[in-house]
Give the backbone structure.
Amino acid sequence: MMLIPCPWCGPRPRVEFSYGGPADRARPADDAPLEDWTRYVYERDNPKGAARELWRHGAGCRQWFVLERDTVTHAVAASHPLPGAEVAP
Amino acid sequence: MSATASPKPARQPERLEHGGLIDRGRALTFRFDGRALTGHPGDTLASALLANGVRLVARSFKYHRPRGIVGDGPEEPSALVAVGAGARHEPNTRATVVDLVDGLEARSQNRWPLLRWDAGALTGLVGAFAPVGFYYKTFMTPARLWPLQEAVLRRLAGMGSSPTAADPDAYAHRGAHCDLLVVGAGPAGLMAAWAAARAGARVILADERAALGGCLLRERVTLDGAPGHAWVAAVLDALRALGDRVTLLPRTTVTGQHDHGFWQAVERVADHDPAPAPDRVRQRLWQIRARQTVLATGAIERPLVFAGNDRPGVMLASAARAYVNQYAVAPGRRAVLFASHDEGYRTALDLHAAGIQVPAVVDPRAGVRGPLPDRVRALGIPVRDGHVIADTQGTARRGLNGVTVNRLVDGGPDMVPVGDWIDADLLAVAGGWSPTLHLHAQAGAKPVWDAERLAFLPDPERGKEWMCGGCAGVLRLDDALADGLAAGQGAAEALGLRPGAAPPLPTVGADDPAMAGSGQPQTALWAVPKPAVANGKRFVDIQDDVTVEDIALAHREGYASVEHLKRYTTLGMGTDQGKTSNVAGLALLAEARGEPIPAVGTTTFRAPYTPVTLGALAGRHVGAHIAPVRRSPMHAAQAEMGAVFQPTGLWLRPRHFPRDGETLAEAVRREVIATRSGVGLCDVSFLGKIDVQGPDAAEFLNRVYINGWKGLAVGKARYGLMLREDGLAMDDGTTARLADDHFAMTTTTANAVAVMTHLEYGLQVLWPELDVRVVSTTDEWAAVALAGPKSRRVLEEATDLDVSNDALPFMGVTEGTVCGLPARLFRISFSGELAYEINVPAGYGDALWRRLVMVGKPFGLTPYGAEALGVMRIEKGHVAGPELDGRTTPHDLGLGRMVSTKKSFIGRRLLERAALTDPERPALVGLVPEDGATVLAGGSQIVAVADRDTPPPVPMIGHVSSGCAGPGVGHPVALGFLKGGLARWEGQTVLVSHPLKGTATPARVVAPHVYDPEGRRQHA
């Protein structure tokens, strides 16, 4: 079971987290073409190797964060709070 | 001795007079197929059977051939038996790993009617009756016969039978962290654990066997001048002296390596306990997070493949040594050794030393010379080098009684047609060693073929584990000890520990066979040629009855990939996962392909290493403990009133409150009528509640709901619908504005968690710029709905607040004291009646329920459950879970007018897609049966009347989502979806078809709001 470093809580077992798709996907503007929206909602890259992913520490601080992970070896390179997230007190 | 004393234990005819690590002072009684037998503490079931001369222990699963004991450990492919009785019956247990206990009940499998005389063995007699792919090829047509054929085949084929009663035993899970996990407590593992623990590491040392020590218990070796087991005892004492730092786990199989240093292991806590206490766990699943790991899992010996190699009495050479040395059992009295490498000759030496006759050693290599063969020759044992075992002979009951030895033709793959006969009741086979790489490879490492050592070795590129000893291909004892020491020291250094004084390496006896080097390399003889006339088949995988010919046939039919070969022939797919057979199987495939072994590769290694009981995986999470139960704060008060509860997700909700033997339908009818005509009380604490606060709270709600929230006045509530980003409805609920920057949101019971997560995603990922906080308050508030025309009068008795229509109109919200409790009061209605929802802090929930029941008594207040609640919302045409089914848009639900065109919200853009705005989409309608009596069941299909006599498939024009008897309106009503919706169908008749019941009920299509369509009652 992967050990995922939550930026707020530290390393925790994978069962406490859920995966939320690739990171860094911008939600299209409201009036963007329908094609952009379709791509945003339905299309996902399936990278082999290095990936930046969104994960949520649902059984902990409930914060979404970015996890840099290798999808082949499952090696974790780093994790980061989302832009705009506050530093925990 | 009195007449009632139990009979003297039967003599164990094959027990050796001396030696062995067994307690001869105590006799244990056990039964095999009903026969009473004895053994000693320290025995396994297999060694005790052999001590009693029992050689036939199983029938094979496809051909029902007689089978005996092949190995002495977890790799056992053959001796699968059922142990335990009744609910504790466990099939497919390897007799070689079952500790013998007093009173053990064991039975053979796959035999009918008797192990000795088995009807299914006829399938074997018919020879080529069942070649590989037999099922696929033979039973394709006619398909209707398959159920009958399957029933017969299932009786003949198969692996034991499952117990039919619930497992009476308890299982546990235990999490553990350690600096170093050492798997395998043989010479290398013991040295590694000792070295690391001395350096200060917290060490877990796990071994699958009952006694720690590995091969040192099975082999005749001298360490520091004493027997190997004495050195093991001294090391274990030294480890125990280190205290808590070291955890020794015998009888613990590490079954899987998972990500990031996570390992699972199964400890057999009480399997060997003759009388386990009722509160004792039977097995414990360890979930270990280790910073470093040493694998010292040893190696598994391979058999050789030749005609008749599956007969009882054909045994791995290392196992024969183990039975003689560790268990003091003679697995035979006249033993031939068939070895393709020098190390196997140790068996001839050990058997000879135990007084077992060894008429010959047969070795396919020509001109064999070396320390071990020479010592064997010096004992007067003929070494038949350049020869092979061509065939065997024997009987079903006694197994082997002789072998045929043929000379290999020089330089060719053939052998001379006529061989010599040698009487033998034991044939020990030594086909080389396969390092036990399962745990290493499970994490993705690719074992590398070593063409000289004829073995797969650890992947040097992958794997963070320290591999040492036999599993690293280091087979000589002194090398393995040193290798273990180095691994333990390396692990300690990797942990950042300062290496302390290294534990002393023991001196191995100079003339130990374990120290003798190899005179000449092993030969790669993967299958002995088959003589023109042979008694037996050449089995590669004796558990799955896969032969050399099956592999060749599969290859001819195009199964050239090792993964395909495995699935087509079932090679290596048994409970042993091919631990003894896979290498020969893929080597034969490589030969057939004309390629080297690395080009074929191995099949994928997957956890678990050995079979794991479902009980161990489930642990305590069984029965009522499989999930937590959520109860409303009013649960106890409702139970006292006779509520019948129903599970809803994790919740237990009152379904109805029956009186005097009422049926469900009668109770629901009474509750609905009482509420519609007087006043009812319903627990709605189950609804999800989310507190939304912050300067941007209204803007946030605007972005998650389809309708607008900025204009909502403080002290008002509004119905909201939220979509997923794909434009389909996600959830609905009423949200109230308590202050400019403070909203109280409700969600459906089922989606409370999903909505909370959805909101958090919006705030954290999509719009971090919004200054809003959300928190789930579902558990903080107890809530009731007080509904019915008399609800205001009850409420007036319970509060000083002005609850008149002017002061608290429909959708009004206020705070104050109700029944003496701090409360939020919402004038909202799900039933369609004049109604209020009262929220109090959860701790007051019980008091609120009891006081309202008391206050309402003079008004005939009637508690109602989820069933009546559902009925009233259907009558009123409110959508709920069956309508919000993940396929419906706001327009489908009749809520299209709520969709704001002035703002953006989640789902807005994709809701504009042509398919989601098609007027032909199924849309919400009401349905009333024309006979005024038939209840229209949810899930029913709707078809056009014109299609009444159309043969199937009949075009479907919609479906019923929710239906009820409609006690509040006097006739059944239902909600459903029809293509084109109300605009097309209002007033028309359709057929509501229930294919399972074979009914088709004419129903009239009406507007969904059947009860009080103008909404006068809820505004009263």
